[in-house]
From TrEMBL:
Residues 23-307 form the Gcp-like domain. This is tRNA N6-adenosine threonylcarbamoyltransferase. Pfam families: TsaD. The gene is tsaD. It comes from Dyadobacter helix. Keywords: Acyltransferase, Cytoplasm, Iron, Metal-binding, Transferase, tRNA processing.
Amino acid sequence: MNILAIESSCDETSAAIFTNGKIASNVIATQLIHSQYGGVVPELASRAHQQHILPVVDKALKDAKVTKNDLDAIAFTKGPGLLGALLVGTSFAKAMALALNIPLIEVNHMQAHVLAHFIDDPKPSFPFLCLTVSGGHTQIVKVTGPLEMEIIGETKDDAVGEAFDKTAKLLDLPYPGGPLIDKYAKLGNSAAFLFPLPEMPGLDFSFSGIKTSILYFLQKQVRENPDFIRDNLHDICASVQYTLIDILLKKLKKAARETGITEIAIAGGVSANSGLRQALSGLGEKLNWNIYIPHFEYCTDNAAMIAIAGYYKYVNNDFCDQTVSPMARMAF
Ligand code: KG4
Ligand code: ZN
């Protein structure tokens, strides 16, 4: 059984082949063009997806040693994401499924991030909690089955990935700044500067206040010392990263306490952050949690996670028809 999966929700064009229970290929074309604009430019993302999609799908088939006639179904990201970007992957998947006369499977990108944990062993057992942290989302998801998920906490404003990227922008680092903050944080003192923690009720998050306090803090310091950022870059990155991780893990601890669940996973682009991975492992040891952290390649956007989500829908006969359209916003 062979499923082709296509991901085009943001700035990565990716295709993967799932063959007999395993990922046989996973090809990702990252769009570098956005770094010069300090963020993803939707129109440029759509155009780059148009350029990349055919060679990326072609390579995924070749890497898996599969031809298009061997395919049994095509899965694609329906949303959430940038509408123009999603349209490219959706139209491509629909056209190819129509031409090959095979079923089409729509996949929710955020569910797929969670299901990335089922690509390799060890796999979490149900129920588990997944902290899904990306450039567009920050969610605590209670997962009771492969396709049964409930968001029990989420951000009410910015996503944590945005907080990383916007801080990086203030520090004059290129987009996406999250990985660079991670890199410099390793060289700095996380207790050098203190930032106030947001007060959000329940399991929800807020990251817009911290972004503003970082901005005011930097403006004040730079007025006193124009070289402040250059002189303290590592300490600033370490302190900001420490604060963002602290906000995430405090809520995750609360969610575990309230649900009594001790199977804990992280997913999404920010789960590539080494400070978060380390802090979560430490917390897991302390609280006797079983921790699940995805391989780096399955943290940021990729089609392998779309393929695994597509597989679960395939075995449930959960297909869509040619009238399907992408959705920029999409609930589970
Ligand atoms: O899941 P993803 O690839 O795309 C979305 O669906 O948004 O996540 C991208 C986000 C960006 O904000 C990026 O800066 C962040 O993940 N990110 C990181 C790291 N690697 C990626 N943030 C902090 N540390 C990292 N190592
Ligand atoms: Zn994502």
